Write the structure tokens for this entry.
Amino acid sequence: GIGTSLRRTDYTEAALRAVRDALWRNSINLAELFDLPKSAMVLDVEIGVARPELVDVEKIKAAFPYGQPRISVKQGGLDVPRPNGPPNVIANVAISVSLDLELSQ
């Protein structure tokens, strides 16, 4: 997913928008294939932004309606300079979904 903050240089909001973009573009129904609850899904979320230290990980976790999100914020994304003002912030997100089938038996 991709998300932006065009005026406020808000890295958390850009990351949240990227998470929502990734979630809404995909159907995450892995648990249903194994007859497990959605809460059993492990969601490995990798976020790339230019200033990783400015992302509020707890706000990102709260964006997931189910599953067990594990958030990793790394150097990435893009800050696009503007001639008169702060940069436009672009965040990128990748979400990998898995199940621990040994625990669910």
